[in-house]
Amino acid sequence: MKQLKIEASTPLCQLQDGGRFGVRHLGVTQGGALDWVAMHWANWLLGNPLAAPVVEVALGGFCVVAEQDCVLALAGADLDARVDDQPLAPWRSFALAKGQRLSLKQPRQGVRAYLAAPGGFLGEDVLGSCATVVREELGGIDGQGSALDKGQALAFSGTPATLREVPEALRPQYAQKPVLDLVMGAQIGDFSGTSLFEAFNREWTLDSRADRMGIRLLGPQLAYQGAPMISEGIPLGAVQVPPDGQPIVLLNDRQTIGGYPRLGALTPLALAQLAQCMPGAVVRFRAVVQDEAWREQQVFLDHWR
User: Same structural domain for residues 63 and 36?
Assistant: First the structure.
């Protein structure tokens, strides 16, 4: 067993894995890493199962000290990571000697970085996952849904891996104005023609009202003209439109049902892109059909096979 002692943290630094599934009928949401692509690469670097528990660090402010010599991996956003004040670029595994400090300070590109350890960090499984969902008090180190805190220890027990990097050509590029693929949903035809044109031909700005539950977008006011809806299940990435006409993209910690009409849902790859966008960033939507989204994702998944 090896440990990292946490010297600094924020409420946005949490233990996450691939998520909690098969429990939505109980009203329990899935949780899990917002940028699943970066999480998979962090685990790939160490030969872990791709959904093994990692530390999700949003916006920096995180520091750990190694209590034993170890090998770790870092992927995702460039948060000005440093080992004893020496710069450490993401998308690689690296050695950390006993007593050395790893600090993730502030965003330089992207928002969320993922720290992995051999075998995955140890947490308390609740309903099949240790994914932290603060609202529901599930997951995390102790199973109570708490974010990581100063003074806690992150434990792991896997075998150290050979040092390696993610090939340059396969590293995600966090574009300034990403185009997000959206699979059109059942209510798409109940929006006005003008609204549909603007939804896919105008830019949207990420509001500061954003968390792991959802991100509000600011832009043209969309008008729903259909009949009132009965609440129904909400998939990951659903783009729902409340009465004010400003869309909300629902993320991993979303509620399980809702009654607002939806344009559709972002693809998993688009969600990973969105997770790396700062408030104030500008995005656009591109309409796709499910088969196209599936083919693109399968090509991407081949990198890990």
Answer: yes
